[in-house]
Amino acid sequence: MQKLLVEGGKRLEGTVRIGGAKNSAVALLPAAILADSPVTIEGLPKISDLQILGDLLEEIGGTVKKEGQTIEIDPSEMISMPLPNGKVKKLRASYYFMGAMLGRFKKAVIGLPGGCHLGPRPIDQHIKGFEALGAQVTNEQGAIYLRAEELRGARIYLDVVSVGATINIMLAAVRAKGKTVIENAAKEPEIIDVATLLTSMGAKIKGAGTDVIRIEGVDQLSGCNHTIIPDRIEAGTYTILAAALGDGILIDNVIPQHLESLLAKLREMGVTVEESDEQLFIKTSEKLKSVDIKTLVHPGFPTDLQQPFTSLLTKAYGTGVVTDTIYQARFKHIDELRRMNAHIKVEGGAAIVAGPSLLQGAKVKATDLRAGAALVIAGLMAKGITEVTGIEHIERGYEDLVEKLTNLGATIWHEKMTEEEVEQFQNS
Ligand SMILES: CC(=O)N[C@H]1[C@@H](OP(=O)(O)OP(=O)(O)OC[C@H]2O[C@@H](n3ccc(=O)[nH]c3=O)[C@H](O)[C@@H]2O)O[C@H](CO)[C@@H](O)[C@@H]1O
Ligand SMILES: C=C(OP(=O)(O)O)C(=O)O
């Protein structure tokens, strides 16, 4: 097992290029199941979640060829093999095998998904959607069994705005008979990206990116070529880092409109933010002003940037209140930031950050993906060396993290954990 060592206190500058969007990629790969010929997806990020999804596609009979950041998935020989255990539990997005396999085979057995532990993450809205389309859904020993004689289009109102449920229902509905309307749909850019791929495959989808999506089912979907959108959360993470320590950092391959809620907050704090078509230029200010943030569904402030943003707030003057309305318990990074001398308390579902604090290097543990990003940012801001364990979480969503940060002038490296450290880590 490896840990990350981060030496803090340096100002950073240069250019960082953003990879393809994790939360698109993890849906685009399962979407290929719906086609009858090879689907090619370009611009994939180098992250561990995609390796697992590639393995799962092979387990059900797909032929997967990877070359650089391009993947070709030939789904023609796939069968509806049950995936009740094993790799499906290692990530969240394995739930997209439910919608895609139901759409193609009218049956599937998929274990309940894993992913970041952020408090309860039910999938009742996914199931409500599948049932409305005519599927029988049962939960047997931790696996979801789905079966339908035929899928029929339906009007589905989501009780909770859910990215996963919106995409999953879309995946099944493109192969249902007749018209499906998803109301109160999520509007995240990744939903548009998945709809774009499905449309290139021959699906008929209108309204992706709005809260009403209309789908006219088709009998057949074919292979196509698709280029993935840039990762707004990776871009947002480097933007936050640049706001904390940037002497002028250019974020390349980003769609600035995807990050408007973050950029508005950074401007309020006094950060220099310049936008162009596919780039952002970010420069910190000597005296950052505290702000409050409240995470909301898109286009509100993204929950996935809440944790990295909390690290930035420790440097700002004043009190900042962080409220996460999507995951009320997404605060596991706070205890670790406190070890680094951050003055933060969690009260009534909000984290209250009193700044500025001079962060000190410490031994900390990444409990989830974005907590890991928050701790790396804090480590780069801190005096001394920070050791971050739990880096397999970070590898789920950040490609080439060490290389990208080193290019910006950071001192960060991997080290093998000793046996004693591994034991301590496993028991903590
Ligand atoms: C792989 C992927 O794309 N992950 C993202 C996706 O997760 P995921 O798709 O799991 O998140 P959702 O948008 O579904 O969840 C939003 C909220 O709805 C609740 N909910 C969701 C589904 C459901 O059936 N019932 C229910 O109550 C969840 O507990 C949560 O409070 O969107 C989240 C919210 O932007 C992001 O943090 C994750 O990075
Ligand atoms: C919560 C996240 O991922 P997942 O839904 O894959 O666990 C995330 O990307 O921040």
UniProtKB/TrEMBL annotation:
Transmembrane segments: none annotated. It is an enzyme of class 2 (transferase). InterPro entries: Enolpyruvate_Tfrase_dom (IPR001986), Enolpyruvate_Tfrase_sf (IPR036968), MurA_subfamily (IPR050068), RNA3'P_cycl/enolpyr_Trfase_a/b (IPR013792), UDP_GlcNAc_COvinyl_MurA (IPR005750). UDP-N-acetyl-alpha-D-glucosamine binds at residues 92, 121-125, 304, 326. Keywords: Cell cycle, Cell division, Cell shape, Cell wall biogenesis/degradation, Cytoplasm, Peptidoglycan synthesis, Pyruvate, Transferase. Phosphoenolpyruvate binds at residues 22-23. It is found in: Cytoplasm. Pathway: Cell wall biogenesis; peptidoglycan biosynthesis. It catalyses: phosphoenolpyruvate + UDP-N-acetyl-alpha-D-glucosamine = UDP-N-acetyl-3-O-(1-carboxyvinyl)-alpha-D-glucosamine + phosphate. Its EC number is 2.5.1.7. Residues 6-405 form the Enolpyruvate transferase domain. It holds the Pfam family EPSP_synthase. The active site is at 116 (proton donor). The modification 2-(S-cysteinyl)pyruvic acid O-phosphothioketal is found at residue 116. Belongs to the EPSP synthase family. MurA subfamily. Cell wall formation. Adds enolpyruvyl to UDP-N-acetylglucosamine. This is UDP-N-acetylglucosamine 1-carboxyvinyltransferase.
